[in-house]
Amino acid sequence: MIEQLERSPALAAAQAAAAPAPRAADAAAAPAVAVPAPSLAAICLATVATWTSVALLQALAIQRDKLGQDGAARFIDVLAGFLPQGLAVAAVSCLLAAAFHYRADAMLRPRAMAACLAAMLALFLPLQAAAGVLFQLAWSGAAGTGFAALWQARDAFGWWVDACLAVFAYLAQAALAAWRRGQAAALAWQQAQDEGMALRLRLLQGQLKPHFLFNALNSISALVRTADRELAARALVQLSDLLRYAVHSSRHEWLSVADEMAFIDDYLDLQLLRYGERLSIDLAADAAPWAKLACPPLLFQPLVENAIHHGVERHHGHCTIRIRLALDGGTIRLAVANPNPAGEPDRQGHGIGLQATAERLAILYPGQARLLAEAGPSTFNATLAFPARPFHDN
Question: Quick one: which of 137, 44, 46, 126 has its CA closest to 92?
Fold first, then answer.
């Protein structure tokens, strides 16, 4: 979770915005990964295979019974009595699949489902039975004769079995269509969520740029007022490097930790020009492959800027900003500390940078990142921790 302990009310609001919702809300809001829905051709192929298998199993069961009685029935003859019905059900199932595929919203309405099921029982069952009788006559070489006798030989149990198969075939296609529609809705919802999160990230990152630029221009303005043209010119060069990185970062969702630290170095060089001997930097980083680890652009700068604001701008004496970058197992940690002399008045900042950082962490690393900012008796500490992920330069 995102944790923040800060004196600024704006940063407290960032905690409320960035903290994850309760587990029940998370479970309700997080969509399941949508499974690609099968194509119509795949559904029809599976349908034909299923009903052919059903006919085969029925024939095998009857063949076993007949063998137990007299052993006279040939399996091919028994299969000929079931295969036409199975193929007829498969054909109707394919028609239903096409109807549900192209008109799912209309077909899944309760009235439409009831009407379609009634039509299947009233029209399809007689046609299926007639097709089976004709096929048996043709198979036996008696086509055109004996139809009435075979039709009358069908008992109530046979009609009931055919009705159950028809209802099952319809419900199977309806259930599959409902599942397909649910998958499509879940996929659309998930895409909308992803697009919304991406837009929010771009807005948060864009929010940091004018805020950072405003503070950088303030630094240069302070140098210009000192009438030191050489320092002002050097500051403008530093600003151009900072702006170049800011523009570059707008084209990428991820940069390396090494890129981000190089930007921090340039930013600190600008602040050193502004504050001179009043400011010193104590920066240490672990020996790690920072160029191969990913980092969201402009993630570290708000912490450093906050330290400058609270540690240097508030006080007239010397100030040391301590920065530590470490790779602890699979976690990247950035700790920034600045003096916080007791008894001196505090100028509340807007908290834009830390608030945006907290929200970005909540989106990019849900439940895996931490931003902790707390004021001690003499030191203000800000610690950022997030998972280490490989960086792929694109």
Answer: 44
Highest mean pLDDT among 146-155, 287-296, 315-324: 287-296
Q: What is the pTM of this model?
A: 0.51
Rounding to the nearest 10 degrees, give the CA dihedral for residues 69, 74, 75, 80.
Answer: -110
Nearest to 168 by CA among 156, 176, 178: 176
Q: How far is CA 129 from CA 120, 123, 154, 172, in A?
A: 13, 10, 9, 21
Say how far apart CA 301 and CA 15 lie, in whole Å: 19
Kindly state the helix (H) or strand (E) to which residue 156 belongs, with its residue range.
Answer: helix 156-225
The DSSP bridge pattern shows strands 279-285 and 379-387 to be unpaired
Contact 379, 338 (CB under 8 A): yes
Least confident among 66-75, 151-160, 288-297: 66-75
Residue 348 has pLDDT above 70, yes or no: no
- Is it the case that residue 385 has pLDDT exceeding 90? yes
Distance CA 380, CA 344 (A): 13
Q: Whole-angstrom Cα distance, residue 170 to residue 122?
A: 14
Query: DSSP class of residue 237?
Result: H
Question: Hey, what's the torsion of the CAs at 41, 46, 49, 52, to 10 degrees?
Answer: -100
Residue with tokens 């210009």: 224
- 6 or 61, which is more confident: 61
Chain length of the chain: 394
- How many Cβ atoms sit within 10 Å of the Cβ of residue 129? 19
Contacts 24+ apart (CB under 8 A), 370-377: 370/1, 370/2, 370/3, 371/2, 371/3, 371/4, 371/18, 372/3, 372/4, 372/5, 373/4, 373/5, 373/6, 373/11, 373/306, 374/5, 374/6, 375/5, 375/6, 375/7, 375/340, 376/340, 377/340, 377/342
User: DSSP strand E in the chain: where?
Assistant: 255-256, 279-285, 294-295, 319-328, 331-339, 370-375, 379-387
CB 357 within 8 A of CB 371: yes
Token pair in block for residue 184: 């499509």
**Where is average pLDDT lowest: 5-14, 66-75, 286-295?**
5-14
